[in-house]
């Protein structure tokens, strides 16, 4: 094991894995992928990954800078669901569903971003306890921030969480039906058709109100 | 192989598997499960299952009565998505989302129905070509019949298919988020809260119109 608090490259090499060795980096990535997938982002600690990989936690920071960067690299994510939502929260609550839907579809319609996300989302187990990573995306990276934004706009906390959760479920449905199952004609629809039709419906889920034909 | 056209029990036993033997029945079920999962309901023929199982196609009818019954039994489905939608299509188009959402949630909230459906839905591959069964549910058993109902109500065929597909994607999202991922608080919400909040939004997806707060 490396010395505690070590944060520079192989300053005092110990008997464990050494910084600078490609296999150390890969061991960290492998351990991280396993932990994140099994336990989700939030519950996974850098310390646990370090223990699994047989390195000091400081070496992870040395290599990757942050838990989030490690996460992105371990899962080969070029578009990280955790970083996509926050910028959309700025601006009106009314426009929020349209902004999020646009970002979601632009990201997934891009094959470069899609492949690793597809691997992630299609990896669902029929044992719900094993779906921790996707659950943590939904709860912590999508529904959670939307609920917070709704309470800022004046909605009660329980109602905000319920409405944000319902909206998040709809986004999951778009992803599964269009990119994982590739149901037609939905998968072939122009992005703008989906946005124009679904954004008002999502707005109603978030904000309530009435529908007039 | 059994004689062609044979439909009574082991009338003229041939060299192949015999009716009445439990292993014959099981061989048919195994072959059916593999075919349906790989190719979907529509593309799978009873003849292909019979060939895989080494029996005459008539023996499948003898044992199971119909392709649909065989499907239900092969997948151990007590609630078959194919049979859930058609009864909801009767009645007004405006009320359709509420009726379908109610049936969907009642079915999945029942643990007895949920387990086999969960195994089916969570069995998604990151290779979309392998998701034929779920694709055939979405296209042929959910979106298709809804689109037909919309055209009966006067909508053009392309628009009807697009809107029905968008609505079907929302139903998938509810199932994945609530039962497979078990995202909270969405998974804990009362059924009626989800129905009351989401039915008007789904109605807007199906019928268009405007949202007023």
Explain this structure to me?
The first copy, chain A, has 213 residues and is mainly alpha-helical. The first copy, chain A, folds into 2 domains: 53 residues, Orthogonal Bundle (Arc Repressor Mutant, subunit A), CATH 1.10.10.60; 127 residues, Tetracycline Repressor, domain 2, CATH 1.10.357. In chain A, 64% of the residues lie in helices and 1% in strands. In chain A, α1 packs across α8 and α6 runs antiparallel to α10. The radius of gyration of chain A is 20 Å and the shape is globular. The N terminus of chain A is likely disordered. Chains A and B meet through α7, α8, α9, α10 and β1 of A and α7, α8, α9, α10 and β1 of B. β1 of chain A pairs antiparallel with β1 of chain B, so a sheet runs across the interface. Chains A, B: GO terms for molecular function: DNA-binding transcription factor activity; transcription cis-regulatory region binding. Chains A, B: It comes from Antrihabitans stalactiti. Chains A, B: InterPro entries: Homeodomain-like_sf, HTH-type_TetR-like_transc_reg, HTH_TetR, Tet_transcr_reg_TetR-rel_C_sf, TetR_C_16. Chains A, B: This is TetR/AcrR family transcriptional regulator. Chains A, B: Keywords: DNA-binding.
């Amino acid at each position: 094991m490396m010395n505690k608090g070590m944060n520079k490259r192989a300053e005092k090499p110990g008997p464990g894995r050494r910084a600078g060795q490609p296999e150390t980096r890969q061991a960290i990535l492998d351990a991280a992928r396993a932990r994140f997938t099994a336990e989700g982002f939030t519950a996974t600690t850098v310390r646990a990954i370090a223990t699994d990989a047989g390195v000091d936690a400081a070496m992870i920071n040395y290599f990757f800078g942050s838990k989030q960067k490690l996460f992105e690299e371990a899962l080969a994510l070029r578009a990280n669901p955790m970083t996509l939502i926050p910028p959309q929260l700025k601006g009106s609550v009314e426009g929020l569903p349209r902004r999020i839907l646009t970002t979601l579809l632009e990201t997934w319609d891009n094959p470069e971003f899609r492949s690793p996300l597809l691997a992630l989302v299609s990896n669902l187990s029929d044992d719900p306890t094993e779906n921790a990573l996707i659950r943590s995306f939904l709860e912590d990276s999508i529904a959670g921030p939307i609920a917070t934004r709704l309470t800022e706009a004046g909605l009660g906390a329980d109602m905000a969480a319920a409405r944000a959760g319902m909206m998040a479920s709809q986004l999951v449905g778009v992803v599964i039906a269009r990119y994982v199952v590739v149901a037609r004609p939905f998968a072939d629809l122009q992005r703008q058709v989906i946005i124009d039709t679904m954004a008002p419906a999502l707005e109603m889920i978030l904000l309530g109100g009435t529908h007039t034909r």
